[in-house]
Amino acid sequence: MIEYHDAYLAPLIDATPEWETHAAEDVAQLGTFADSWPDKLTVLRVYLLLCLESAASAEDVFSLKLKQSHRVSGNDHG
User: Fold this and answer.
1) 27, exposed or middle or buried, with CB in 10 Å at 0-12, 13-18, 19+?
2) In total, how many domains does the chain have?
3) Whole domain around residue 17: which residue ranges?
C-alpha cells in the first residue's frame, strides 16, 4: 500500500483500498513510467477520484481540495 500524506484524505483511502486499486489500474493504462512515477501518479489519481466521488457541494472539503489541486497544477479556471 502506498503512503498518503493528506491528513484528511488518508484515513478515507485506507478505509477503502479499492480507490488505490482503481487508481493504479488507471495509471497503468497510461503507459510505462520511470520507477518512481507510478506510485506518485497513483497517489494523485486516488486523491482526485476520492474528491470527485465525494464532493457534495461547491464548498465542501472535497471540492476545496480539488480547487487547490487545480491551482497547484496550473489549471485554475475560476
Assistant:
1) buried
2) 1
3) 9-73
